Amino acid sequence: xxxxxxxxxxxxxxxxxxxxxxxxxxxxxxxxxxxxxxxxxxxxxxxxxxxxxxxxxxxxxxxxxxxxxxxxxxxxxxxxxxxxxxxxxxxxxxxxxxxxxxxxxxxxxxxxxxxxxxxxxxxxxxxxxxxxxxxxxxxxxxxxxxxxxxxxxxxxxxxxxxxxxxxxxxxxxxxxxxxxxxxxxxxxxxxxxxxxxxxxxxxxxxxxxxxxxxxxxxxxxxxxxxxxxxxxxxxxxxxxxxxxxxxxxxxxxxxxxxxxxxxxxxxxxxxxxxxxxxxxxxxxxxxxxxxxxxxxxxxxxxxxxxxxxxxxxxxxxxxxxxxxxxxxxxxxxxxxxxxxxxxxxxxxxxxxxxxxxxxxxxxxxxxxxxxxxxxxxxxxxxxxxxxxxxxxxxxxxxxxxxxxxxxxxxxxxxxxxxxxxxxxxxxxxxxxxxxxxxxxxxxxxxxxxxxxxxxxxxxxxxxxxxxxxxxxxxxxxxxxxxxxxxxxxxxxxxxxxxxxxxxxxxxx
Length: 508
What we know:
The protein is of the alpha/beta class. The chain folds into four domains: 10-187, NAD(P)-binding Rossmann-like Domain (Rossmann fold), CATH 3.40.50; 195-280, N-(1-d-carboxylethyl)-l-norvaline Dehydrogenase, domain 2, CATH 1.10.1040.50; 307-409, NAD(P)-binding Rossmann-like Domain (Rossmann fold), CATH 3.40.50.720; 417-507, Orthogonal Bundle (N-(1-d-carboxylethyl)-l-norvaline Dehydrogenase, domain 2), CATH 1.10.1040. Helix content is 43%, strand content 13%. It has helices at 17-28, 40-59, 65-73, 98-109, 127-131, 165-177, 193-196, 198-209, 215-224, 232-239, 241-254, 265-272, 318-326, 389-401, 417-433, 439-450, 456-462, 467-478, 488-507, and strands at 10-13, 33-36, 75-77, 89-92, 117-120, 140-145, 154-159, 181-186, 307-311, 331-335, 341-343, 349-352, 364-367, 378-382, 405-409. The strands form two sheets. It has an eight-stranded mixed β-sheet, sandwiched between helices. It has a seven-stranded mixed β-sheet with strand order 10-9-11-12-13-14-15. Strand 14, helix 14 (389-401) and strand 15 form a beta-alpha-beta unit. Helix 8 (198-209) runs antiparallel to helix 15 (417-433). It is elongated and about 80 Å long. The protein starts with 9 loop residues before the first strand and ends with a helix.
């Protein structure tokens, strides 16, 4: 390993929340740490804050008294940039303005040794551009920690166009030695997490904009059916609508306003109105004292149908059929052709989400994708206005008989979980094909960086056949803006799988 030796000094420039967190990580890992901010008062306050955090670790039993005392003895506030000249690693966590970062690194380049590693914690700026003003840009690398840095394990190691491989490897090994989980990625807009996570927010906001479901219902479906830790509406209220919208806009503009990354107009209106989330007391939801938490739409109890007929291959929803066969009081007849659908006693049908709308069919209700249909506690159903009341009640009663809460939403193609997952898979495949990162690092980044229940590529493999490709193709036909057009990598994978299946059939 080429990790920076523990005896060597790590300097952190920028004494805000991220700078303090990074300084704590390096300190607990055993390094002498210098903490610097151009505002001397912030440096002093940050030094006190880090010391307080270390003391809390002792109080909670996570750090021994002697170890804490040793660590605190290695923490020193710096009052002049020249004090950082002996550092082996300098990590900046200053304001997200390119000129500020460039000026800082230009000043550092003249002060530190030739082998000093210069790292930027930027989450939205180009590492290549940050290093562009330097005489020796090869020593500059992105080390993007996630907030709070002491708790979240992920660190994105970002190689700019001019970054030396040795510098990236050294940053990677250092993060690993600090107990973090580093992933490598190229210098692309949004890096890994912020690039690939955009559909998690964008698709939910689109469902809301299409008036198919309210924020509380969308959040509940993604949590209780999709397995995500938090829904996008509550999560962006926590992050801050201004922060989340700025990242979305930055990625969109960096990709030359690609339709894949179009920001949300309703979210823009929130930001313009000053409803930024928890920090202002109002966002998608109200956080004012006494405000009731909005509840998701949950259908009233309905009687389960006594018998159903099942036809076709349900792909990732196949477990639903097994659950029906195990359910008490429901007689299940299986057809060998047609489908996929569940024919209800009244003659209507219940079909798995496929990117089509309910209105295209006669009396058909769609049900959403789930991470795991057995453990899911909620499922969304989509029905057009012309679906009969009996069919909708029978569909609701059927899933209630399987122990699920049911949210009935508007007739949107791809529904909520289905379109979100398909888009995540597509962006991940595209990133791998373009050399942004390995499939393993992308899945690791999305699990650890934003707590997804599965990495998108792992999820894509779990979905049988060309499921995500077919759903996006159907969505693209209904919303031909380019947003849902499958990437070239997705096309290649789908047709490669089709060719493999045809070959197996011909030799069978």
